Amino acid sequence: EVQLVESGGGLVQPGGSLRLSCVASGFTLNDYWMHWVRQAPGKGLVWVSEIHIDGLTVYADSMRGRFTISRDIAKNTLFLQMSGLRADDTATYYCVRSTSGFDLWGQGARVTVSS
Amino acid sequence: DIQMTQSPTSLSASVGDRVTITCRASQGMGTALSWYQQKPGKAPKRLIFDVSTLHSGVPSRFSGSGSGTEFTLTITNLQPEDFATYYCLQHGRYPLTFGGGTEVGIK
After folding, report:
1. CA–CA distance, A11 with B22 (Å, rounded to integer)
2. Which of A97, B25, B66, B103 could lock A104 by a disulfide, CB 3.0 to 4.6 Å apart?
3. 3-class secondary structure for A41-58?
4. What's the first-to-final CA gap in chain A, in angstroms?
């Protein structure tokens, strides 16, 4: 089955770090551009970052320098390393595959930043 | 940045109605425009890509159109399972940007 499964979410204190993982099944992750999208509680969707087939990475301005997208080809897994977390980073984070937009979404990983 | 202004923010409709949702881009863009449906507690699902191409398995009552700065999602013969929130996405320029969402509720 073609799917994306995120893990690694949880409660973290302000200023802390967290790494999200997304395991891809049914397809080869590095054959596609892959993204992270987030959604704060009760709010809309926000693009976070992407990684290209050649490994090039791009970030939204508010995440650049704090978030790092990467992948492990052997494990077919996408990562999002988040540091310097703030309360407004509280959201559900989705791992997404793109082909003319976002054609495949994971179920989401919930991140709560609070003391 | 390309701002995507989606309207209306919410609407109430009845089963069988025709519903139209609009996204206006702050500057002209090409065909890198897609539409998504999201139900409470679930991940979004793609409905339409490249402005007007239906995603595999999506019912034909969903359609997309538009060009330049104005794009439209139309749902004809609204069904009970269509009550949800809808988002547009432009992925032609960085940063990728979503519309603010349209919640389609039951009248």
Report:
1. 37
2. A97
3. CCCCEEEEEEECCCCCEE
4. 39
Q: What are phi and psi of B91, to 5 degrees?
A: -125, 30
Chain A residue whose CA is closest to B42: A107
Per-residue pLDDT of chain B (107 residues; tens, 9 = 90+): 999 999 999 999 999 999 999 999 999 999 999 999 999 999 999 999 999 999 999 999 999 999 999 999 999 999 999 999 999 999 999 999 999 999 999 88
Query: In the Cβ-directed half-sphere of A91, how many Cα atoms lie within 13 Å?
Result: 21
Provide the residue type at A31 as one letter: D
d(CA B55, CA B77): 18
The answer to whether A102 and B46 are in contact (CB under 8 A) is yes
Interface test with A, best of B6, B91, B97 (most A CBs within 10 A): B91
Distance CA A86, CA A88 (A): 5
Q: Quick check: B54 contacting A, CB < 8 Å?
A: no
Q: Please, which residues have CB within 8 angstroms of residue A26's CB and are 6 or more apart in sequence?
A: A1, A2, A3
Q: Is A33 on the interface with B (CB under 8 A)?
A: no
| Cβ distance of A100 and B49 shorter than 8 Å | yes
- Which of A47, A101, A107 is closest, CB to CB, to B43? A107
B105 C-beta neighbours (distance < 10 Å), count: 11
Write down the residue that tokens 């087939």 correspond to: A53
**B99 in contact with A at a CB cutoff of 8 Å?**
yes
Q: Tell me which residue has tokens 């390393």.
A: A81
